[in-house]
Amino acid sequence: MAQKPIRFTHNGAERAVFVEEGANLLDVLRRGVGDLTPKYGCGQGTCGACTVIVDGAPRLSCLTLAETVDGGRVDTVAGLAEGNRLSALQEAFMSHFAAQCGYCTDGMLMSATALLKDNPRPTREEVVEAISGNLCRCTGYEAIIEAILTAAGSGGARRAG
Amino acid sequence: MAIEFRKDLFADERDDDLNEIGKPTQRQDMLGHVTGRSPFYDDHLFDGLCHIRCARSPHHHARIRRVDTSAAERMPGVRRVITARDVPHNLNTLLSLLDFGLDDEELIASERVAYKGEPVAAVIADTERQAREACRAVRVDWEALPHVLDVEEAIKPGAPAVNPAYPGNLFVYHGKYDHQKLRYGDVEAALRTADHVVTGRYQMSPIEQAPIETCGAIAAPETNDRFVCYTSTQALFFSLGTAVKLLDVSSARLHFIGGTVGGGFGGKVDSLHEPMAILGTMLTGRPCKYMFDREEEMQVGAPRGAERWYLTDGVMNDGRIVARKFVGYFDAGATTRLSSYAIIKGVGHLPGPYTIPNVYADVYCVFTNRTPATAMRGFGVTGVDFAIESHMDEVADTIGMDPIELRILNAYRDGDMKAHRRLAKNTALVECCQVAAGKAGWGLSQAARAASSLTGGGGARAELPAFTATDEHGRVAGFSSGSYAQGGRPAEPTGRGDPRPAPGSAPRPEPRHEPPRHEPPRHEPSRTPEPRREPAYAGAPPRPEPPSPAPPAPGEPPRRAPTRFSSISGLRRR
């Protein structure tokens, strides 16, 4: 099968990988780049576990053709912390018990990160809307919503870890 | 949302001097979760990873006349196609690890399929897409058989036989009865004297656990002739034991790594991904991944089973329930999995948290041509609780009583004898009702407000019934309680219903003579008969019957126990 080289910025670092025609970004990130933070949950764009940020906007990596990010920027949970310093969202998820099994958490964090970048002071309704494409079977969402609102209130403060 | 603790209730029963319980504690895995570093099974990368996909039955019930894998084997990237004959010991039931029930499920169907989606072949290929495409090239000559999808239809004479291990479509309890019994007092006599008899029928649908991480496992060759297996299982030692049995290998050769589960909710208790992935690795020498996609998770992944309950209550004009009768049908689907156990648990729970002097239950574990059912979040209890609490409302409506007052009146109190012949301890239904009514602004009578779980119980209510009506209804012969205890093959059942020969009641597929790992990686599947070898477990010495869940001797005085909590015995109070 034909392979095609693509280049993109991944969490600030330059990457060049060969991708199969038709390969999705989720597989390329996980198997090609070795970034295991986006998760496979459905392969159909319904669960949100594979959410990453492409050129500043949240995208479902399982439905994104890898070729389309050529020359672009891809950000994932692997790039949220700076060394041992967690992002405000990661801190808030920890302190609010906003993860149980942890499988949806990466997608949740990416949807929330994209939200707060564009809208640093979202209302509760805007938070709910922003994560409406991310399914969680454990928490019942309340803790996640509270965590995102708390992170927004903290103005992006970071804690030394 | 803040949690409200009502520590004023039963305050003298707690010292509240615990160091950890009741205090917020960070999860030890939380840092891994928020940094994406938690090691789920699929987060282990292997060079040359192969992908396993299954060709599945499009029929609810069919005989397999022939499986032709030759076209699939020639497809690009295909390393091997596995069929039933490649599975060393292709018959198991999950609870055989406790010797509870007969082996009744194949890893890959050999001669017949009994539910839609049952695997009939497994393709191992270099990429997932190649495996999918090769699955479509597996040719199966099906002979569709009549199927049955309803529990009560399945136990009528002449219904299609679903599972060869249980020709009557009913699991056999303790080798004796085609249902699980509860007999306590004399329900029929009490119903005759009751002021009202209230009947109801309740139906629960299957529920898929739907974890965000689909079920799966990755196996790879390890040093010292071992295999490592990363798995999403919720029950590592169930999975290990199942793999050992199906693959006929020593557990010392299997290195299982689990513990990070992307949501389970019961659906990952009895997964069959580990043996399939390990078998793929044995046959190809390659790391192999077998993972449900979302469609398989929903269609083939074992759900909480459907349940149907018939309830008959005898109730007096003053609201006292004097008799409660249950007839229940659990839809196990095509194989037993954990449905047999769900019923044991459910029957121990009857008649719900109420003190009723006459209780009767016949609960059937029924095989149908639906997806095998398994564990999910309180399974065995949640379904019948829905029926019981719905029925309480019906009873209240019938006699014109407030539904919460009816519950408080009939609630079990400390010291009451329960239908499974243990004294009730630590009861709290009265207080639950009072708090719930208060929260809802629901007015209660002075008597209901004054009621307490600590008073009014015991005494005559601690006595066992003077007479319990028993019967041999549903007695079967020729069964043993488990496959290890059984020795040979099960005999035809007698008694209830017509014993029906099972269509396609296949003898066990013959195990491979040589361990498959000794074969070259691109071995062509053999189609010649191989020498019969007794399955490893058939020759095991007979084991003693497992202790039956029979209740302790009637009249046994309640034990005084030290202060401790047990979810089984319910000991909490001194």
How would you describe the overall organization of this protein?
Chain A has 161 residues and is an alpha+beta fold. In chain A, 31% of the residues lie in helices and 17% in strands. Chain A has five helices and five strands. Chain A has a five-stranded mixed β-sheet with strand order 2-1-5-3-4, with helices on both faces. Chain B has 574 residues and is of the alpha+beta class. The longest helix of chain B is centred in the C-terminal third of the chain and has 18 residues, at 382-399. Chain B is 21% helix and 17% strand. Chain B: Residues 35-146 form the Aldehyde oxidase/xanthine dehydrogenase a/b hammerhead domain. Chain B: It holds the Pfam family MoCoBD_1. Chain B: Keywords: Molybdenum, Oxidoreductase.
Topology summary:
The complex is a heterodimer of chains A (161) and B (574).
Chain A: E1 3-10, E2 13-20, H1 25-33, E3 51-54, E4 57-60, E5 73-75, H2 88-95, H3 105-118, H4 124-130, H5 142-153
Parallel strand pairs in A: 1-5
Antiparallel strand pairs in A: 1-2, 3-4, 3-5
Helix pairs in contact in A: 2-5
Chain B: H1 30-35, E1 50-56, E2 62-68, H2 70-73, E3 78-82, E4 112-113, E5 119-125, H3 128-136, E6 139-144, H4 151-154, E7 180-184, H5 187-193, E8 196-204, E9 216-222, E10 226-231, H6 236-247, E11 254-257, H7 273-284, E12 288-291, H8 294-299, E13 307-315, E14 321-333, H9 339-349, E15 359-367, H10 382-399, H11 403-410, H12 429-440, H13 446-450, H14 483-486
Parallel strand pairs in B: 1-12, 10-11, 14-15
Antiparallel strand pairs in B: 1-5, 2-4, 2-6, 3-5, 7-15, 8-13, 9-10, 9-12, 13-14
